[in-house]
Specification:
By secondary structure, this protein is mostly beta strands. It contains 5 helices and 21 strands. It has 2 domains: 174 residues, Sandwich (Immunoglobulin-like); 140 residues, Immunoglobulin-like. The protein binds copper (II) ion.
Length: 336
């Protein structure tokens, strides 16, 4: 008897869930964008939950091109061009099969036309042809997220090089069906080079000759020297699993991404859905490419993110992951 009631309740719940998911499948949802190093939460679930809540949706993404003066390094003001007023721009999380309704606006007080090329797009220009916007304008285009992956987006307006070099890029995650394996913490880190001129009126700008020479003045994580140091350091606890979505815009150099004191348990260098590499010390991330690294932290202390093309550390390519918790002498200790 008790069993019958149980099944009845289960059936009622299943009916409700199917009804709800039927609505959700056609729902239009606003993308929740995050500023680096934060990653949008996975709200679609996995397993049985994703069967009901993980269906394809229309996801609306709103981004605005914003030009502003900010800190590139201590004592160095720079004239950035950006998506959303930060470098890198905000991160979005969608799922394979979703239809992305993308709105790009250009702040009225900007000086340049801008657009967006999203590497998750199948189609000429990655959306750039549909989105070139003058200051004060907004344009919309729609694309289907066909392939899972961690993808770069960037501005491709004008000569392109100045728009990329000034900070117009970010990452979008297209999750596979069923989502990615769960981890305890996720972070968004992006490496970029800057070619800063001598400051005029206290503000440095893009020096094209330094770009042509491939001589960056700064190589930084998350938009500025010290972007992942001090109060900006990443944080985790002993025994937690950590995932970093790591993008490299270049615009010229390949990154030799490494964390001093860690081995990446898994690197999604075959893309999402392809084979992953295991137990990797340093992974190459091409210009305008991105990867995902997963690892478990075993011992407390400060782990150091670098581009192991090591002279770049002096130009700013260094960050900290601070891990708190109990010592783990079996894994590491001083002496015997
Ligand atoms: Cu632009």
């Amino acid at each position: 008897m008790r069993k019958k009631i149980g099944y009845g309740v289960l059936l009622a719940f299943a009916t409700m869930a199917i009804g709800f998911s039927g609505t959700a499948a056609f729902a239009e949802v606003m993308a929740k964008l995050t500023t680096a190093p934060n990653v949008p939460a996975d709200e679609r679930g996995s397993g049985i939950m994703q069967k009901f809540f993980g269906k394809a949706e229309t996801v609306v993404v709103n981004l605005q091109a914003e030009e502003y003066v900010g800190d590139l390094a201590e004592g160095v003001k720079y004239g950035f061009w950006s998506f959303g007023g930060t470098v890198p721009g905000p991160m979005a999380r969608v799922r394979v099969g979703d239809s992305i309704e993308f709105h790009l606006s250009n702040a009225a007080n900007n000086t340049q036309p801008h657009n967006i090329d999203i590497h998750a797009v199948n189609g000429p220009g990655g959306g750039a042809a549909f989105t070139t916007v003058e200051p004060g304008e907004e344009k919309i285009f729609t694309f289907q997220a066909k392939a899972p992956g961690i993808f770069i987006y960037h501005c491709a307006a004008g000569a392109i090089v100045d728009h990329i070099s000034n900070g117009m890029y970010g990452l979008v995650l297209v999750e596979p069906e069923g989502g990615l394996p769960k981890v305890d913490r996720e972070f968004y880190v992006m490496q970029s080079e800057f070619f800063a001129s001598e400051p005029e009126d206290g503000i440095a700008t893009f020096d094209i000759q330094k770009g042509l020479d491939e001589h960056p003045t700064h190589v930084v994580f998350n938009g500025k020297a010290g972007g992942l140091l001090g109060d900006n350091a990443l944080k985790a606890k002993v025994d937690e699993t950590v995932r970093i979505y790591f993008g490299n815009i270049g615009p010229n150099s390949v990154s030799s991404f490494h964390i001093i004191g860690e081995i990446f348990d898994e690197v999604y260098d075959g893309g999402i859905g392809g084979p992953t590499s295991k137990n990797i010390q340093t992974t190459l991330v091409p210009s305008a490419g991105a990867t995902i690294v997963d690892f478990k932290v075993d011992a407390p202390g400060t782990y150091i993110l670098v581009d192991h093309s090591i002279y770049r550390v002096a130009k700013g390519a260094i960050g900290h992951l601070v891990v708190e918790g109990n010592e783990n002498p079996q894994v590491i200790r001083q002496g015997k």
